[in-house]
From TrEMBL:
This is Polysaccharide pyruvyl transferase family protein. Pfam families: PS_pyruv_trans. Residues 12-309 form the Polysaccharide pyruvyl transferase domain. GO terms for molecular function: transferase activity. It comes from the Bacteria. The keyword Ribosomal protein does not apply. Signal peptide: none annotated. Coiled coil: none annotated. Keywords: Transferase. InterPro entries: Polysacch_pyruvyl_Trfase.
C-alpha cells in the first residue's frame, strides 16, 4: 500500500510531527505500508524518514510528471520513485492551507484539481485534522465544495473550522471535528541536553510579521524582547528554540541582538527532539502552533501569539484561552509574572493536564476512523 502524504513542508518541525504521527499510527496496523512525498522538500529531510519520492516535474507551468511512467518499474524502485498510478491512498496533513489567507489556487492545485480523478482511480482521500476557512472567495468556495463531495474523511481541527466547512452547505457524512493528532507523539531529548526548573522556552514565527497585520508586524519583536528580558529579571533561564527554517532563525537572531543579555538559541533537525525540549520547560512562549500543541499535550503552560483562529481555538480546548496575547498587549510582562506565581502556575498546569487527556482520547478516535477507512 503506497500512501502519499501531502502538505508536510519540511523542515517545518510541526509538519514533521504530523508526518511522523501518520506514519507511526498507520504502520502499526499496516506494516507493509510505504509512504511517499513530493520532491519539494530538501532530500536530507525526506531521507531521514525513509520515504519514497513521487514522480513530479513541473517546467514553466507544464506538468511533465507522467514521464516517470517511461522508466521501467525495477529502475524506479531502485531509486525510490513512485508514479501517480501506484498511489493507493492520499492523506492531506497540511495543518493550514485551505482558507482565504492562502488563496484559491493553493486549494485547487493541492487537492481540488485532482480529487475527482483520485476517486475515479479508487484512491482513498483523507484530510487529517487541520484548520479550515474562512471561505469568502467564490472560487475557493467552489474548490472546497468539490473536496467535501469527494473526500473519504475530513477532520476539522476546531469548532470555527468545522463551521466554515458546514457553511459550504454540502450534504456529507465524512466531516468530523478532531484535535491535532501530534498530541499523541512522545518527544525525546537530544544528547547532552540539560534542563533546569527555571527554563522558559521562546519559539518565534516569521508569519507573525507576514500575516499578522500591521499591529503584529510593528510590535512582535519588541514583545518577545520584553518578555525574555522580564523572564531574566525574575531569575529564570529563557532560551530561543528554532521550530522552522531560515526565516524563523533570522527572526530569532534579530530578537537576540536586541537583548541586553542575549540568550541561547537551540537548533535541532529532529522534530521529536524539539518536542522533547519543549516538554522540559517551565513555561513556553510560542507563536508556532505546533510549539503550543507540544507544550500543552505535555502539561506545560503557555503564552501564545497567533495570526489565525486556530491559536485561540487550541488554547480554548485546554482551558487557557486568556493566554493568547496580542503583541501590543501592554501588560504582557505582568501576565508572565502572574503565571509564574506558584499557586497560579499550579492551577493552570492542572487544568492543562486534565484537558490533555481528553484531547488525546479524541485523537485516538481519529486514528481509529482513519484505520477503518483504510
Amino acid at each position: 500500500m503506497f500512501i502519499e502524504i501531502k502538505g508536510v513542508g519540511l523542515p517545518n518541525r510541526g509538519a514533521e510531527l504530523m508526518l511522523i504521527g501518520v506514519m507511526k499510527e498507520i504502520s502499526a496496523k499496516h506494516p507493509d505500508a510505504k509512504f511517499v512525498l513530493l520532491p519539494d522538500t530538501p532530500f536530507s529531510e525526506r531521507n531521514k524518514h525513509e520515504v519514497y519520492q513521487k514522480s513530479y516535474l513541473i517546467i514553466k507551468g507544464l506538468d511533465l510528471s507522467f514521464l516517470g511512467n517511461l522508466i521501467p518499474k525495477r529502475i524506479r524502485r531502485r531509486f525510490g520513485l513512485i508514479v501517480e498510478s501506484e498511489i493507493d491512498v492520499v492523506i492531506d496533513a497540511s495543518g493550514f492551507a485551505y482558507s482565504d489567507q492562502w488563496g484559491h489556487e493553493k486549494a485547487y492545485l493541492r487537492s481540488a484539481k485532482h480529487i475527482k480523478r483520485w476517486k475515479e482511480n479508487n484512491k482513498k482521500v483523507i484530510f487529517m485534522p487541520q484548520a479550515f476557512g474562512p471561505f469568502k472567495n467564490l472560487k475557493l468556495r467552489d474548490h472546497m465544495k468539490v473536496i467535501l463531495q469527494h473526500a473519504d474523511l475530513i477532520f476539522a481541527r476546531d469548532k470555527v473550522s468545522l463551521e466554515h466547512m458546514k457553511e459550504l452547505k454540502v450534504a456529507t457524512d465524512n466531516l468530523y471535528e478532531a484535535p491535532d493528532f501530534s498530541n499523541l507523539l512522545k518527544g525525546r531529548l537530544p544528547e547532552n541536553f540539560k534542563s533546569t526548573a527555571k527554563d522558559i522556552c521562546f519559539i518565534t514565527n516569521s508569519k507573525m510579521l507576514e500575516k499578522g497585520g500591521d499591529i503584529e508586524a510593528d510590535n512582535y519583536k519588541p514583545f518577545m524582547v520584553n518578555l525574555i528580558s522580564r523572564a531574566q529579571e525574575l531569575g529564570y533561564n529563557p532560551y530561543l528554540l528554532l521550530h522552522e527554517g531560515e526565516k524563523d532563525l533570522q527572526l530569532a537572531k534579530d530578537i537576540n541582538m536586541q537583548l541586553k543579555n542575549p540568550v541561547e538559541l537551540i537548533q535541532t533537525v529532529d522534530a521529536l527532539e524539539v518536542k522533547g525540549i519543549i516538554g522540559t520547560a517551565k513555561l513556553v512562549v510560542s507563536s508556532r502552533f505546533h510549539g503550543l500543541v507540544s507544550a500543552l499535550s505535555q502539561g506545560v503552560p503557555v503564552i501564545a501569539t497567533g495570526w489565525s483562529h486556530k491559536y485561540k481555538m487550541l488554547l480554548d480546548d485546554y482551558g487557557c484561552g486568556d493566554y493568547l496575547l496580542s503583541s501590543n498587549n501592554s501588560n504582557a510582562a505582568g501576565i508572565l509574572e502572574e503565571m509564574l506565581n506558584e499557586k497560579k502556575y499550579s492551577e493552570i498546569k492542572n487544568k492543562i493536564v486534565q484537558a490533555s487527556e481528553i484531547e488525546k482520547s479524541k485523537s485516538k478516535d481519529t486514528i481509529s476512523k482513519v484505520l477503518k477507512a483504510l
